[in-house]
Design brief:
Elements (H helix, E strand, L loop, with lengths): L14 H10 L10 H6 L17 H12 L26 H8 L2 H10 L10 E3 L9 H10 L5 E3 L5 E4 L4 E2 L4 E4 L4 E4 L7 E4 L16 E4 L2 E3 L11 E5 L11 E3 L2 E5 L4 E4 L21 E3 L2 E5 L4 E4 L12 E3 L2 E5 L4 E3 L6 E3 L2 E5 L4 E4 L4 E4 L2 E5 L2 H4 L20 E2 L4 E4 L2 E5 L4 E2 L10 E3 L5 E8 L4 E7 L2 E3 L12 E9 L7 E6 L2 E4 L7 E9 L7 E6 L2 E4 L3 E5 L6 E4 L10 E6 L3 E7 L8 E7 L9 E6 L2 H4 L4 E5 L3 E6 L8 E9 L3
Parallel strand pairs: 1-2, 2-5, 3-6, 4-7, 5-8, 6-9, 7-10, 8-11, 9-12, 10-13, 11-14, 12-15, 13-16, 14-17, 15-18, 16-19, 17-20, 18-21, 19-22, 20-23, 21-24, 22-30, 23-31, 24-32, 30-33, 31-34, 32-35, 33-36, 34-37, 35-38, 36-39
Antiparallel strand pairs: 25-28, 26-27, 27-29, 40-43, 41-42, 42-47, 43-46, 44-47, 45-46
């Protein structure tokens, strides 16, 4: 019978037996639990010999296994012959001194540190500039830089203003300068040629070469112009190039303000204008980057790549990208060796002369920039600290005194003073005291000047505003939205692609000469510019939306088909690029074929694309015409014979095709 508990109210007379039977299942007669009952309930029963390892948790078994293989006794009785608490000296270890000497020593590590050879080291050195002493940091900063290894990274202390008290801070080449949060400025009356300069830029005379590549990131320069009365007063003045291992010179996220001279100048010449050469540190002079920088209140140019003397180096193939240039006495961005440069996304505004001006262009691109307010010297003065050097460009007077960088007009040409206390020196015959401006009497949002062949020049997708009501225009200047100036003589030409530019003049004072797009020659010769122009928009008041030099007209001749009999004649007005042809046929023997020919005053570098349109009713009724072209001229041909003694008029445009 299955064991059970007694049922209350039942099992009368048998309940005791039933209960005992139930308890017998799990209990011994003495009241202890039976082993079988514990096993059934899952209770562990310790064996009489103890708990075996196999009955333990796996992690405990693992730990016990490690203990089994651990040191079971202490076989080491001494160390290097010493017992107890042991302290070892270098001599206690056999061959230790010899082994260490074979690996490295103090003198060899010092050689590595000074030579810049880091083949066995994982990191280049970082040199932290010293803290400012608050009065003159020139010596301490220059000493730290001079002692730094080649290829090192010079790190400024964020939040620090370093004072140039005894000369410019000299940034040595083939180094990187990490200067975020750092400001450098000259002391009052420091009157230095620069706040920050590379050593080569401060040399004079012949025989000097460029510094190695210099990379500057995040530096702020305050030129302290209100308290400077002499010296060139540039913010940053570098004469540094590029090499294969370290790359080009780079300025990025740099901010320069309130300078007596240019904000940023990277130069091919030294302090006295003598040409520098390439050297072992910088075998190449080009490919520099000036990116995401800002200049504000510059007494000369905002950003200037300064050209060199004849026979010197050329800093070509550079990048001037996404910079802001605000308020200058001279040009916003000036690139003197512009061959191969990419000038993109810049914003010059409030410039005393031109917004962007380049010379020596070849495969140069000026794109996607916004140029606003040019030739506003009379307004830019309000943004300076009341310095007499910054005033409106007046007509030169022999009795007036002019300051360094001041601008004057003489005989229709802009001149810039090269010295202080400039009095009585006639600008056109005083090259030591005055520098003539490239644009003559013209200022432009974009000025591209070339004295030699330059193909192609791209001026594309720029936004241009000559001026607005709060600035006005200087009546002494000739204003150009875009000016492309080619060679004065010879067969060399500039090929310009001028596409998609928006050119606006909100305010045109009476008597001011404004031209949206002008193509010109450097002198009195024929225009040295071929242009392809498309999708340009002009807005506002202009004296002329487009002009080219109206120099000697091409030579015309009556074609053989129209020259029969007597009375045939031809007149050509205009120039090599645009004009009108009026031809009158003879009185007999007129046939289809060559009607009129035009010979250019100069042979073109490439064959132009020529478009001819009828100007008179007789020309329109003549029927189909076609044009044959060459580098020396073009001919208008007819498919039917012209009428006798009849005048025909045609307009022509000769330009670069695509």
């Amino acid at each position: 019978m299955t064991a059970r508990l007694p049922v209350p109210g039942s099992d009368e007379g048998t309940w005791g037996d039933i209960l005992n039977s139930f308890l017998d299942v799990s209990h011994n007669v003495d009241g202890t639990l039976k082993s079988s009952a514990l096993n059934t309930a899952g209770v562990y029963t310790k064996p009489g010999s103890g708990i075996p390892k196999t009955d333990l948790d796996s992690s405990v078994q693992t730990s016990l296994g490690k203990a089994d293989t651990a040191l079971q006794s202490a076989p080491v009785t001494s160390v290097a012959g010493k017992t107890g608490v042991v302290t070892l000296a270098e001599s206690d270890i056999t061959n230790l001194t010899t082994d260490l000497a074979a690996k490295a020593n103090t003198s060899s590590l010092a050689t590595v540190a000074t030579s810049g050879s880091y083949a066995d080291l994982s990191n280049l050195p970082h040199v932290l500039l010293p803290a400012s002493n608050g009065s003159d940091d020139t010596a301490a900063v220059n000493a730290a830089i001079s002692a730094s290894p080649t290829n090192s990274v010079i790190v400024g202390r964020p939040g620090t203003t370093y004072i140039a008290g005894s000369g410019p801070f000299q940034f040595v080449g083939t180094r990187t300068y990490w200067m975020y949060g750092v400001t450098m400025r000259p002391k009052n009356a420091g009157n230095f040629d620069a706040v920050v300069a590379s050593p080569a830029a401060l040399t004079s005379g012949a025989g000097n070469s460029l510094d190695g590549p210099i990379r500057i990131y995040g530096l702020q320069v305050n030129g302290n112009v209100a308290n400077q009365t002499s010296g060139q007063g540039n913010g940053i003045l570098l004469a540094s190039g590029a090499n294969v291992l370290y790359g080009p010179t780079i300025l990025q996220d740099v901010h320069v303000r309130d300078t007596r001279g240019s904000g940023i100048c990277v130069s091919e010449v030294n302090l006295d204008g003598t040409a520098l050469s390439n050297g072992s540190a910088a075998p190449y002079s080009g490919e520099m980057h000036i990116e995401n920088c800002r200049t504000y209140n510059s007494g000369a140019n905002g950003i200037w790549q300064r050209g060199g003397a004849t026979g010197g180096i050329n800093m070509t193939d550079g990048f001037c990208i996404n910079n802001t240039v605000a308020y200058t006495t001279h040009d916003g961005i000036r690139i003197d060796s512009a061959g191969g440069w990419r000038i993109d996304g810049n914003h010059p505004y409030g410039t005393g002369l031109s917004g962007i001006i380049i010379t020596g262009s070849y495969a140069t691109k000026i794109t996607n920039s916004y140029i606003e307010g040019i030739g506003v010297l009379d307004s830019a003065v309000d943004h300076f600290s009341a310095s007499s050097a910054f005033s409106q460009a007046p007509t030169w007077s022999s009795g007036s005194t002019y300051s360094y960088n001041q601008v004057v007009i003489y005989s229709g040409v802009v001149y810039k003073s090269k010295v202080d206390s400039n009095i009585g020196n006639q600008p056109d015959i005083s090259a030591t005291q005055w520098a003539a401006y490239n644009g003559g009497g013209s200022v432009g949002a974009i000025m591209a000047m070339s004295s030699q062949s330059a193909r192609p020049l791209h001026i594309v997708n720029n936004q241009i505003s000559l001026g607005h009501n709060s600035w006005g225009l200087n009546a002494n200047f000739l204003y150009r939205g875009i000016l492309v100036q080619g060679p004065a003589t010879g067969t060399s030409k500039v090929s310009a692609f001028i596409l998609g530019n928006d050119i606006t003049n909100e305010l045109q004072p009476a008597g001011t000469n404004t031209t949206a797009i002008r193509l010109a020659a450097a002198g009195a010769g024929p225009s040295g510019v071929h242009s392809f122009e498309q999708s340009n928009v002009t807005r506002g008041a202009w004296n002329s939306t487009r002009s080219a030099d109206a120099t000697a007209a091409p030579v015309g001749s009556v074609g053989a088909g129209a020259a029969g009999g007597t009375g045939a004649s031809i007149t050509v007005t205009g120039n090599n690029q645009v004009g009108n042809i009026s031809v009158t046929s003879g009185n007999s023997g007129i046939v289809a074929g060559a009607l009129a020919s035009v010979s250019y005053t100069n042979t073109m570098g490439v064959t132009p694309r020529v478009v001819v349109e009828p100007r008179s009713a007789a020309a329109a009724a003549l029927g189909p015409i076609y044009v044959t072209t060459s580098t020396t001229g073009f001919t208008i041909n007819t498919s039917v014979a012209p009428a006798n003694n009849t005048a025909y008029s045609f307009d022509y445009i000769a330009t670069m095709g695509v």
